[in-house]
Design a protein that fits this description.
219 residues; mainly alpha
Length: 219
């Protein structure tokens, strides 16, 4: 009877250690500790990488700002150079006025002096001459006679000559206009028209002006 307990004791010592409860409890505790430590390391790594990222981004901003500032400075310098070149290319207002004003001023003064020194009779004679040429298509000699005639305008010979000298007129065109009037209104022949154009008692055009009118009568 005393040998049975000894055999039970021997059987209990023969069981492997991994079948013991304490072994699995130890394994579980170790795994839990490993998981906790791993989680701590993971959080530390994430925090470190985040700090590095923030540091890199914060360190990037000053360099970016400095680059922008440098670009703006270069652009400002280039703009200043461009404005200076434009100022040098364009003459100043003072230079322009000093070079251009005197001639125009002297010209205006000379014109003004001519106008003021010309007698009023001469100027009115010129206005009459313009009317006789542009409205009545008269010849140069015809206008002069009309201005000086006792039965006409009664201007002095000097005033009439001033008007003729300063009158701008196309006497060929005037002769042609007169010739067409004689042809259409009085049904005159070309030779009769020629005689009337050059007659001392007629239109007083020159032979050359009368010839021009006859040559272009039917145009």
């Amino acid at each position: 009877m005393s040998k049975k307990p000894d055999s039970d004791k021997m059987e209990s010592f023969k069981d492997p250690f991994y079948k013991k409860m304490w072994f699995w409890m130890l394994i579980g505790s170790a795994l839990f500790i490993i998981m906790v430590v791993g989680s701590i390391f993971a959080n530390n790594n994430a925090l470190s990488s985040s700090q590095k990222s923030d540091a890199s981004s914060s360190s990037y901003s000053p360099s970016e700002d400095s680059e922008k500032s440098e670009i703006e400075q270069r652009a400002s310098i280039a703009e200043e150079k461009r404005l200076k070149s434009l100022e040098q290319a364009v003459p100043s207002t003072e230079t322009f006025s000093s070079t251009s004003t005197p001639p125009s001023s002297s010209t205006a003064q000379s014109k003004s002096s001519k106008t003021t020194s010309t007698p009023t009779e001469y100027l009115t004679a010129l206005n009459k001459a313009v009317f006789y040429s542009s409205r009545m298509y008269m010849s140069k000699a015809g206008i002069y006679n009309q201005l000086t005639s006792e039965y006409g305008e009664k201007y002095s010979s000097e005033a009439a000559q001033y008007a003729i000298d300063n009158l701008v007129s196309d006497y060929n065109a005037n002769a042609l206009k007169k010739a067409k009037d004689y042809q259409s209104k009085m049904n005159m022949s070309p030779e009769s028209i020629r005689d009337q154009l050059v007659s001392e008692y007629g239109e007083k055009f020159t032979p050359e002006e009368a010839e021009y009118a006859i040559q272009h009568l039917n145009n």
